[in-house]
Design goal:
The chain is an alpha+beta fold. It has helices at residues 6-12, 28-31, 91-98, 138-147, 155-168, 174-187; strands at residues 21-25, 39-56, 67-87, 103-112, 117-125, 149-150, 153-154. It starts with 5 loop residues before the first helix and ends with a helix. Benzoic acid is lined by residues 25-30, 99, 103, 123.
């Protein structure tokens, strides 16, 4: 049910001598930047799509009733919109703990709105991690989200804040907006 990734991530990137690193955020990192950053700007990454396929029993759910949070799934040709943060490598000490339940850091290429490209890092919960739930119909994902709550608050707040943040970024994400629509419809049933 849990893969603690803190030590694995520490070994993956050593940042020797580097003063700053770009990080790509596509989920709660867009709307919850509880860490210091040097710069923040909208960015996209290619060949990955955002999916509510990762289980959450430590933030937005419990062991008995896990919530769902986003991860990235490889999809050639897809474009995932999010937020780029330029951070000091020390910030990963905090983020590795915050995202310890199955998320590993990977190298990726960020593209900013002006076309500039930089190498950076992104946290991804891959299908091998034990909290991975995988695909389900958006209607069922909405139901699960509606009934889950955890130490970081209701799972529905996570979904609604993410959907709002994506609209602010002019992102088109049918998966996320479909789940939001089902959640709102089910609430008024
Ligand atoms: C993100 O927003 O990029 C993110 C949030 C939680 C875990 C991993 C990544």
């Amino acid at each position: 049910m849990s893969t603690n990734t803190v030590e694995i991530n520490r070994q993956r990137h050593r940042f020797d001598g580097r003063e700053s690193v770009w990080l790509f955020g596509y989920g709660s990192l867009i709307f919850k930047a509880d860490f210091p950053y040097l710069e923040r700007k909208p960015a996209s990454i290619r060949d990955w799509e955002r999916r509510f396929w990762q289980g959450s029993h430590d933030h937005r759910g419990t062991v008995e009733a896990p919530g769902r949070v986003v991860t990235l799934i490889e999809k050639p040709g897809a474009l995932c919109r999010g937020m780029g943060y330029l951070i000091s490598p020390q910030v990963f000490d905090h983020l590795d703990i915050r995202e310890k339940n199955g998320y590993l850091r990977f190298t990726t290429q960020l593209t900013f709105d002006d076309g500039q490209q930089v190498e950076g890092l992104v946290y991804i919960a891959t299908p091998e991690n034990t909290a991975f739930l995988g695909p389900a119909h958006e209607r069922d994902i909405a139901r699960q989200i509606a009934s889950a709550t955890g130490p970081s608050g209701p799972n529905r707040d996570y979904l609604l804040r993410l959907a709002d943040s994506l609209r602010d970024l002019s992102a088109v994400d049918v998966h996320i907006f479909d789940i939001e629509r089902y959640l709102n419809e089910q609430a008024s049933d």
